[in-house]
Specification:
728 residues; Rossmann fold; 11% strand; globular
Amino acid sequence: MLVAEKPLKSYLQKYFGFDKFKGEQEEIVASVLAGKDTFVIMPTGGGKSMCYQLPSLIMDGTAVVVSPLIALMKNQVDAMRGFSNADGVAHFLNSSLNKTEIAQVRSDIKSGKTKLLYVAPESLTKDENVEFLRSVQISFFAIDEAHCISEWGHDFRPEYRRLRPIIEAIGKVPIIALTATATPKVQLDIQKNLGMMDANVFKASFNRPNLYYEVRPKVEVVKEIIKFIKQNMGKSGIVYCLSRKKVEEVASTLAVNGIKALPYHAGLEASVRAETQDKFLMEEIDVIVATIAFGMGIDKPDVRFVIHHDIPKSLEGYYQETGRSGRDGREGKCVTFYSYKDIEKLEKFMKGKPVAEQEVGKQLLLETVGYAETSVCRRKVLLSYFGEVYNETNCGSCDNCMHPKKSFDGKEEMCTVIEAVLAVKEKFAMEHIVNVVTGKQENAVKLHNHDQLEIFGEGADHDTKFWTAVIRQALLAGFFSKDIETYGTLKVTEKGKAFLKKPTKILVVEDNDYSNTEADDDDEFGGGGAAADPELFAALKDLRKKIAKQKNVPPFVVFQDPSLEEMAIQYPITQEELKNITGVGAGKAVKFGKPFLDLISKYVEENEIERPMDLVVKSVVNKSVLKVYLIQNIDRKIALNDMATAKGLQMKDLLTEIESIVGSGTRIDINYYINEVIDEDRQAEVFEFFKTAETDSVESALKELGENDYTLDDIRLMRIKFMSELGN
């Protein structure tokens, strides 16, 4: 225990140059100085680091900070050295150091220079480090990112659960645990695991009033993201995606559309990640497209927007990631694209994991779905998840409050769900309650004889979605609580029992419906969703017919219908714009483009059409490894079936890839292979058929030419030859 000789503010001024503390920082520092175990739950940007940095400088000995990220440690050490004249005041100990550097760190600690030592949990478990730390004076342990201890936290790390015995082996000193996100369940887990049930707990509000929350249906998502960023040009932002592949795709597409963006994920070299992070901090780029590997501890106060291309796996993750915007207290927009199909994908990823882990993952996903689909104030839902009550009826800064849905008096429905929870003896979670109320004969319902209850099927006139929304709003109203030990089990609160005795009017809204949104956006660069201009489309078809006649080729060789349809939506008037139309590519744009561009330009001018330039999204030229491999190996005259075997593809899939290369205007020569598998007479017959055909359908060709004489692959090979020689 240490009583500070002077007022704490004078130490704050002396070491950091600040004249006042933020929030509860002063009380937290006093708790650590008094030798008490201390638990701090404080949102991102609240000033958690100061809570252990200041006492470490005041107290004798070295404070050990357990931190999960090497990059974060380096930032913190640099920041501390910036406040002090002596470099030795702060060090980190992790796998990035060599033997000489480790010896220097130990020397500085022994001599009393080092007040703060950052260690990775893996380094702390090494015997030689435990032995060394036992031999020096430790002032206290700080466990940063303490949510990593709990498997209910969004970033669970098993090595964090082994910290307590190691700390005890080093010596009995106070512990301060800190986290930016902790639900009541996670909080209990952390305190139990660290053996600090009697700690002083400091919990700041999770409300970030400057953040705007919005959930949009996941339709043409990259196009929507580009539109949003262009409306916020010059502002810093982060786009989060779940997979590395999607990060690379989105970053490339943003870049070709004039947005200064770079990708960031764990698969990139450490030096590349560091360089990208520096460019973002120095404002050389505006947008980082990242997996959740990015952002832990990034100290950029003016991030103006955070976009989620994919819904995160948990609300803690979502809160942590959105919390990276507006850390300076000014504007921060948080836009999430949601489709239930994404949830189904996440559920698939969980298969094969231990059953207990799957159960936890499923419960966390249910909370995320609840947030995404709710029609009530998003801030209220988010804060409720962290055990905080938000009493405002309208936050004025989320999509649901700014565009409220119609509500109805739901007192009868509330009574129904409260009765159902009581009828099943408060031992079941929401899904089970909904099944009982709607009268679903599920296994668990029958097993517990809940199909015999009076309440069974009482709400059958409404669907599952309706009753799920009612239960979620009963939780927000405080009629239910979730049991912390058996997470998800609904209990009726005293407030709920009082409501059941004397129901009063309560407004309920139905959830938003995102069931028809498309999660898979591989085709999002086309003009889907908009209707083609019928007059222009007809004119383009006439022009195609005329050019086809001049060139003596069928119309589909010039451009196929989907390409003309997209032209009649996007109104391209330059070669560059035409190249971005599906199925055109550079080759076709040069060969056939000019008369089409002239026609569209004239049409746009005469009809005073406002071209939807905000919708024209340039797609990245497909430089996939497979396409490059195919073109190179066709040039080397490698047999197609050998290529298919080498790449583990079926022949039909290989032909699809080659068709897509030819379809975008690249000329290739597969005569060497065709000559091996189809004799000359049959080749000529198919070639002549396509010359006069009205459509390029292989099925029609096969029917016409005879299924006994040709296979589907034969026809496809000849169509590739035909399109390549006449169209490209």
